[in-house]
Specification:
single chain; alpha/beta
């Protein structure tokens, strides 16, 4: 697998994107479960679209999802300077600098939009960063993740108590941490909050980190440019009312940024699953 990743990393992004578009269609056509979830989540979020607009968005998302898989070897196995150079524009870096200047650490929230792997490497090439990640089941993939992500000034923190301690220590050092806010947490680590009109089990970790550290919060996302031309990064400052549900406020902010790039969001992700051991939501009570 490492050899395959290394071979793919030698190809231009434009070629990998074309291969990825084909892979996206093959996955959609031959995986009924994948296709059904993608359509369900996308149709739920884009209810105001016409039938023609819905079909166009679906087809675009199928291609973009495949591109996301095929560009992963390129991002993880290419030299760091090459990956950073693929970022053609960065919008809002001044917000990152302003947040760092406050001296209480910075929480960067990165939803599953475009090639989100690029964000951590771009930041870590400039300043220390710790990102939370969920260790995969396969050892070889865990090794690839560490080798691909822990470059520059990047450190990885697993999704367990020890990982949370790592994040808090990084914030106390006034550093940047990164979290995927639309990832489903384990039982007891979230609460039900509306996400595109449906209850989704949403992590409470963000609120706990804010209250413990006073850290500034930024939303970030990567926009994949057409024809393998690279990426554009976007950073936006967020402000949460700690007296209200932070998971719900966070989902509201996620909806805003996803609606800007719906064709590049990972709609096939099982965002509405009930974690093992968690009580299912009761509509009208939790929401």
């Amino acid at each position: 697998m490492v050899t395959l990743f290394d071979l793919l990393a030698r190809l231009p992004l434009s070629v990998l994107n074309r291969m990825g578009a084909l892979l996206g269609w093959l996955t959609y056509l031959f995986s009924h479960r994948y296709a059904e979830r993608l359509r369900e989540n996308l149709n739920n979020a884009e209810q105001k679209c016409t039938e023609s607009e819905s079909h166009k968005l679906l087809h675009a998302n199928i291609r973009e999802a495949g591109k996301g898989v095929m560009e992963l070897p390129w991002v993880w196995r290419s030299p760091l300077r090459k990956v950073v150079a693929s970022v053609k524009q960065c919008h809002g870096w001044e917000y990152v600098e302003a947040a760092r200047a406050l001296g209480k650490g910075v929480i960067v929230l990165t939803p599953h939009i475009g090639c989100f792997e690029v964000i951590g490497l771009y930041i870590a090439a400039r300043t220390p960063m710790t990102c939370m990640y969920r260790p995969p089941r396969w050892d070889f993939l865990d090794t690839l993740m560490h080798e691909g992500r822990e470059r520059g000034q990047m450190k990885l923190a697993p999704t367990d108590l020890g990982g949370v301690r790592q994040l808090l220590k990084a914030l106390k050092r006034s550093e940047i941490i990164g979290i995927l806010p639309d990832q489903v947490p384990g039982n007891g680590e979230g609460e039900w909050a509306s996400f595109f009109g449906r209850p989704a089990y949403t992590m409470t970790l963000i609120g706990r980190l804010i209250q413990a550290s006073g850290a500034a919060v930024l939303m970030s996302n990567v926009e994949r440019l057409p024809k393998g031309r690279g990426y554009e990064l976007h950073f936006t400052p967020l402000s949460f009312d700690v007296s209200q549900s932070i998971p719900q406020q966070m989902n509201n902010e996620l909806e805003k940024v996803i609606r800007k790039y719906p064709e590049q969001y990972l709609w096939s992700y099982n965002r509405y699953k009930v974690p093992r051991g968690a009580l299912p939501p009761h509509v009208g009570k939790e929401l």
